Structure prediction request, 453 residues.
Amino acid sequence: MAHAGFSTRQVHGARARAADPRATPIYLTAGFRFEGFDDAAALFGGADGFAYTRVGNPTVDQVERTLADLEGGTRALLVASGQAATTIALLSLVSAGGHILASTHIYEGTRGLLRDNLERFGIEVDFVDDIDDPLAWEAGIRPHTRALFAESISNAAGRVLDVAAVAAVGRRHGIAVVVDSTFATPYLLRPIEHGADVVVHSASKFLAGHGSVLGGVIVDSGRFDPVAAAEHYPHLVTRGRDGRPSAAERAGGDARIAYARDELAPRFGPTPSPLNAFLIGQGLETLSLRVERQSATALTVARWLAAHPSVERVDHPGLPDHPSHDLARRYLPDGAGSVFTVTLAADDGVAAARRFIEALGLITHMTHLGDVRSLALHPASTSHAHLTDGERAAVGVHPGTVRLSIGIEDVDDLIADLSRALSAAAEADPVHGGPTALERMPADRVPADRVPA
Prediction:
């Protein structure tokens, strides 16, 4: 291209010689050159290769392969956010007139998706309160139920799902079980190994770990039986209007995720940036180290908080009094995660939570989790603000509840920061006055260093 014009050369650049980089390259490009006329036609016909980043990209592909391997699935699909992953996963299974049965204990953004958006599209939704009881799941199934949806560790009270029991219910009825495993990560729990069909993650959280990017992932088990599924999922076994082979014909056991990749994600358009995919891939390289450290530190902090007189309760599945403790011991032997809630002992929980959060110095106040930095949030006034008092209480969110996501800092520094915040929370409300939490405390619970001289 030495004799080409300047404008031509500045657009096309010099051809780099072939290389074999150790790190995954970032293919930050909208599309890819076709080798020839027939090559373009073949790629649009489903041949392996890359034509346009909205459909596939080498950087994204490498991260998808890693995620599928880590989760114990056959194939993965990376999308632009965790919410996009949940949306695409469910829409690959449920059509208008269908029904989703979901756990009550789920992320509020997902609850809004189910109740406000999918119901508007003609998809019915019901919720299971007693998620530990397989009979409760059985009782909620209807003839047109097409997906069972739950979180492996719930947001925000840390309820642990009996994945095998729910998966068994799904198998008996030929219904796909979709598990959001963001809080657990594949390091702590792999739902596919316990019978789940599809796993979704917000890759923005622990998978990336650095809080720099958004992303989501869908991982499929590959256990799709086109004969058994023909009644419930006809769109997966029916040929296209132009006679194109069905998802089941093209992909066999991977029909669900093939349909999501070929028919849904490119059309709805939640395409991940290759740069974001690269950064998620970088985070994956340290996933086990971070999650192991975070889980151990979180349990230490949770135990310390549970013994503190200014704390009413701590909801962490690693604690013996948590309702999911036995399930956590069964499903999470390497750690019960690092996100949990603490409810302050105060008559005015919101005021106490305000003082607590505003007194934090090391722990960051923000709406995120799974970061290497510890984070705090007041769910009742933010993520769960649109629920009724009863609905919030049912999922473990009270006026004085604070959600903590523990990072990789030194545990002594975190405890010192929390101790200062608890002292601030126990002080009298500067506006309304009245006794402090310390003054209301039974004498046998007052810390020795706080007893008046």
